[in-house]
Amino acid sequence: MVLYVIGLGLGDEKDITIKGLEAIKSSDKVYLEFYTSLLGGSTSIDRMKEYYGKDIILADREMVESGCEEMLEESRTMSVSFLVVGDPFGATTHTDLVMRAKERSIPYQVIHNASIMNAIGCCGLQLYTYGQTISMVFFTETSKPDSFYDRIKSNRRDGLHTLVLLDIKVKEQSIANLLRGNKIYEKPRFMTINQCIEQLLEIEELRQENVYSKDTLCVGLARVGQDTQQITSGTMEELVNVDFGAPLHSFVIAGDMHFHEKEFFESFRVNSETKRLPPPESSDNEDN
Amino acid sequence: MVLYVIGLGLGDEKDITIKGLEAIKSSDKVYLEFYTSLLGGSTSIDRMKEYYGKDIILADREMVESGCEEMLEESRTMSVSFLVVGDPFGATTHTDLVMRAKERSIPYQVIHNASIMNAIGCCGLQLYTYGQTISMVFFTETSKPDSFYDRIKSNRRDGLHTLVLLDIKVKEQSIANLLRGNKIYEKPRFMTINQCIEQLLEIEELRQENVYSKDTLCVGLARVGQDTQQITSGTMEELVNVDFGAPLHSFVIAGDMHFHEKEFFESFRVNSETKRLPPPESSDNEDN
Q1: Distance from CA of B258 to the nearest CA of A (A)
Q2: B220 with B148, same domain?
Q3: Where does the chain bind S-adenosyl-L-methionine (chains A, B) (predicted)?
Q4: Which chain B residues have a beta carbon less than 8 Å from that of A131?
Q5: B127–A14: do the CB atoms touch at under 8 Å?
Q6: Of B114, B147, B174, which residue constitutes the final position of a domain?
Q7: pLDDT > 90 in chain A, percent
């Protein structure tokens, strides 16, 4: 029949498009991709089930990475909706899914929606003055991948802004559990803007090419597109202790700003009312 | 009361989100921005009025560029929806509108949607391997702005893809009518992929820095997000005579492609069934 790949947007269950909702309602089976991102605020799966009037099957990491074989085959004989937070082409895994449907001549329809890649425009820095987007992964004692550093360097050389996508770990196994074959998963982890800034400064410290510094102007964004959205701008030093609250967090390193961009930037500037993180000794937020 | 700035997405009247539709239904007045983009395929204003159950006031270029003063003031005492094709932050003018609402403490809410800046992912080239987006304007005898050339150069040096947004001229006045103060407007014009390629090659010919050539791999996209969406890939030479049909057109100059990107690219490759433009002598498409 048909495979609908449907973007849910960034907010809650009501950020789906009419076209997307109609596709769900006409589907025999509905899957929700559940590990490259997460739904906004108070949106629970139960609320989605109720609002969409359909049972929802969670497509976890194993299912998606193993290629959603079963779902693809089902799409030959029934209508199937595959729901994705943001836009369907925001993550490589979903692009691969569409490619496989195409190869096998399974009819598919993509229903677009907002993703962080365009909604980031809400901070006032114009989308066409961004360079390459980078991803920041959680550093460990033994692994501190710093390929982003060269990309930021290249963007800043050209005066461009850099969108930094922050790491999400959902349904990860510890190395011990992985080796033992135990299907025990760690608590989900979402990188905070504070952790991102710390890692950025750690790499600048190591590389010392003056690509950016604690005085570099940046914008921190949390829960973009949701009712509790927060946008706060300032230097890395100013933002490193700001409390941005619940996930997801996103981060922008500003390049050259035009007058209007600067005006917008200043309107979000950190001030005396901006909520700060509690001092480190009384906090265990950093490692959650 | 409140100013809703609502993205309509890229397709038709059903690409609005539930949240957006609810905002319209709760509004006392509904404006539609009508000159930086256009609505998909068969979507007429009348169809929108009927589907949204509201009268729709067209906000033309004059209104938007003069700052939508009246609309902003109305938002103090009533609920107003301002509809925008794509996402509200796709165009500088709308970002300015939000900034002015913010400055005047007029409550506003932005409702995001897909824009070409993220929906372009449908061609299979990953969004995080794009460099800076460029705009291609209609050349005239006396004006051939080529600042895009350096941006493409920079993107290609870093192996990045380049999204090219093609010019739209809606409600333009001829110089003669402008000077005479005649409010007579030219027919809307939308740059085709073919015109874009011709202009690109014209500038390469002039600049001769080998940034790209007729053999450079590219993707042409028409009517992204609509039922009649067309994606065709090939060299500039292969694509320059492909008939992409009705607007809007978008164009991507490929950078280095990963294996999966290349596979996707080839699946859209121009072939013997691809529709070609009629030969120039029998065609007046180029200037429409």
Answers
A1: 11
A2: yes
A3: 10, 87, 90, 115-116, 166, 224, 249
A4: 131-132
A5: no
A6: B114
A7: 73
- Residue A116, marked binder: yes
Encode A246-257 in three state secondary structure: CCCEEEEECCCC
Find the residue in B nearest to A8 (Cα).
B17
Handedness of CA A268, A273, A275, A280 (dihedral sign): positive
Residue A152's SS3 state is helix
Residue range A154-160: average pLDDT?
96
Q: What distance lies between CA A114 and its chain's CA centroid?
A: 12
Nearest to A253 by CA among A165, A161, A167, A191: A161
Please indicate if any CB of chain B lies within 8 Å of the CB of A26.
no
Q: List pLDDT tens digits, range A15-50.
A: 999 999 999 999 999 999 876 666 665 667 888 999
Number of domains in chain B: 2
**Are residues B199 and B65 located together in one domain of the fold?**
no
Spans in chain B with pLDDT lower than 50: 283, 286-288
Q: Mean pLDDT across the stretch A88-106?
A: 88
* CB contacts, 8 Å: B14 with chain A: 17-19, 22
Q: What's the rounded mean pLDDT across residues A231-241?
A: 97
B223-253 pLDDT, tens digit each = 999 989 999 999 999 999 999 999 999 999 9
Please report, in range form, the residues annotated as the binding site of B for S-adenosyl-L-methionine. 10, 87, 90, 115-116, 166, 224, 249
Residues A166 and A155 in one domain: yes
Distance from CA of B132 to the nearest CA of A (A): 5
Chain B from 249 to 288: CB within 8 A of any A CB = 260, 263-264, 267
Domain assignment of residue B205, given as a range: 117-287
A234 touches chain B (CB under 8 A): no
Same domain, B137 and B214: yes
Q: How far apart are CA A275 and CA A46, in angstroms?
A: 32
ipTM of the complex as predicted: 0.91
User: In this structure, are B230 and B139 located in the same domain?
Assistant: yes
- Enter the tokens of residue B180: 């005479």
Same domain, B161 and B250: yes
* CATH number of the domain within which B60 lies: 3.40.1010.10
Q: What distance, in Å, lies between the first and last C-alpha atoms of chain A?
A: 43
Same-domain pairing of A9 and A101: yes
Q: Which two tokens stand for residue A81?
A: 């909706």
List beta partners, residue A165. Answer: A135, A250
Q: Are residues A121 and A100 in the same domain?
A: no
Whether the CB of A19 is below 8 Å from some CB of chain B: the reply is: yes
Question: Which among A114, A133, A153 is the end of a domain?
Answer: A114
